[in-house]
């Protein structure tokens, strides 16, 4: 299932996500921080257009935040996607490999992050509410960020 392509693109665009408060609300996007305030990435806003996304159609993701610690080669993330109570994806990804697909190379420097990424969702994604969790660590095992989101398609 390709439902995580949205979140992998977000991840590729801005790396690991960790909200500075308990949650971030941008338009109708609700992201819960499952990390801590010491995480390296702090999310300011995240918007999808259209929201909700439509299977087989383009989606634009706009991510804004800041990075307190450079993302080093060897950083990784665990991505879990569930539809209801049923897990559909459980994947470990190399962050730098994912970033390279968005023309971003590691190490990723400390500072502001403002990324807009457009992609087309695969056709045939079943409608429903997907729960996505992304938990990322740097090469030295320090936390980059963790977030969860319910995404309706």
From TrEMBL:
Domain MD-2-related lipid-recognition: 31-151
Domain of life: Eukaryota
Record-linked Gene3D superfamilies: Ganglioside GM2 activator
Gene Ontology biological process: sterol transport
MF (Gene Ontology): sterol binding
Transport listed as a keyword: yes
Assembly with partners or alone: Monomer.
Record-stated family: Belongs to the NPC2 family.
Job of this protein: Catalyzes the intermembrane transfer of phosphatidylglycerol and phosphatidylinositol.
Protein name per Swiss-Prot or TrEMBL: Phosphatidylglycerol/phosphatidylinositol transfer protein
Species whose genome carries this gene: Geranomyces variabilis
């Amino acid at each position: 299932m390709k439902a995580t392509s949205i979140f992998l693109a977000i991840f590729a665009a801005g790396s690991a996500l960790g909200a500075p408060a308990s949650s971030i609300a941008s338009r109708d996007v609700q992201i819960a921080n499952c990390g801590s305030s010491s995480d390296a990435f702090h999310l300011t806003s995240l918007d999808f257009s259209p929201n909700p996304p439509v299977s087989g159609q383009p989606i634009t993701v706009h991510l804004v935040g800041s990075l307190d610690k450079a993302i080093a080669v060897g950083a990784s993330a665990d991505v879990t996607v569930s539809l209801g109570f049923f897990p559909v994806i459980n994947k470990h990804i190399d962050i730098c490999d994912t970033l390279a697909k968005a023309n971003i190379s590691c190490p990723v420097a400390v500072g502001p992050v403002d990324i807009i990424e457009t992609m087309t969702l695969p056709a045939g994604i079943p409608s429903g509410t997907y729960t996505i969790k992304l938990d990322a660590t740097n090469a030295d095992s320090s936390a980059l960020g963790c977030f969860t989101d319910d995404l309706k398609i």
